[in-house]
Amino acid sequence: MPDAHPIFATVFATVAALGERTGYGRRRAEALAGATGSLLIVGLGPGHDLEHLPGTVTDVVAVEPEPTMRRYCARRVDRSPVPTRLVAAVAEALPLPNECVDAGLVALVLCSVADPAAAAAELHRVLRPTGTLHVLEHVHAPPDSRLARWQDRLDPLWSEMAAGCHVTRDTRQILRTAGFDTGRLRTATVRLAPPLVGPHVVGSACLARPATSDKHT
Q1: I need a surface site. Which of 51, 102, 175, 217 has the fewest CB within 10 A?
Q2: Structure pTM?
Q3: What average pLDDT does the segment 135-155 reach?
Q4: Are 212 and 178 in contact (CB under 8 A)?
Q5: How far is CA 195 from CA 141, 148, 151, 167, in A?
Q6: How far apart are CA 188 and CA 201, in angstroms?
Q7: What is the pLDDT of residues 54-80, one digit of tens each?
Q8: Which residues contact residue 121 at a Cβ distance below 8 angstroms, ignoring those fewer than 6 apart?
């Protein structure tokens, strides 16, 4: 799988390490609260999610498409407190069978995937019926707010600079359309996050109904 954004991966790894000390570490732990059993992490990045696993997680499958990111996270994968398998794949085409994991995590991922609806449908497909999706994502600000207007104006430039990251996505609606109950997701802020990133949603979602796309093996 080609390394599409090696420079951004290097910059992001540095920023993520700083973020662990300025708010994102605490929010990652909040997002993972309640995760149990086999956990799928989509977009492992530098691997900081592995440092916040609750004791109820028994094993991890971690998906990361970028070779540079896989090199950065290799040490954390080796030090993971539970068996962890790192897979080169994209969120829109998870190489996993239907209903094979108890929990999933997306942390600063759905903002950047090429097709967030397809990624959400794939998450729905691989989760067991009683599974939970754990979420830490920055989202579009409330409509008609000043921040939302700035996000709308600057999103193309931001996306170009940040390897496809978007600040205008309505992640709650994307997950609802894919068949998740998002009632337990809450709005939060992250200390020292870039102002344009704006509000975040944190928490967990459960499966509400069949996904809108056909399931496949």
Answers
A1: 217
A2: 0.89
A3: 96
A4: yes
A5: 11, 11, 10, 11
A6: 6
A7: 999 999 999 999 998 898 899 999 999
A8: 178, 179, 211, 212, 213
Residues in a beta bridge with 135: 106, 203
Nearest to 137 by CA among 99, 178, 175: 175
Q: Which residue has the higher pLDDT, 107 or 1?
A: 107
Residues 134, 57: Cα–Cα separation, whole Å: 13
Number of Cβ within a 10 Å radius of residue 216: 9
Angle, helices 67-78/6-19, rounded to nearest 10 degrees: 40
Record the tokens describing residue 163, joined without a space: 């390897």
Q: Give the Cα separation of 179 and 48 in Å (integer).
A: 28
- Calpha distance 167→196 (Å, rounded): 7
User: What contacts 71, CB < 8 A, 6 or more positions away?
Assistant: none
Q: Residues of 132-153 as b/e, b for ≥16 C-beta within 10 angstroms?
A: bbbbbbbbbbeeeeebbeebee
Q: Provide the pairing of β-strand 180-181 with 200-207.
A: antiparallel
Question: 101 Cβ partners below 8 Å, 6+ apart?
Answer: 37, 38, 39, 40, 61, 126, 127, 128, 131
Residue 84 dihedral angles phi and psi, to the nearest 5°: -135, 130
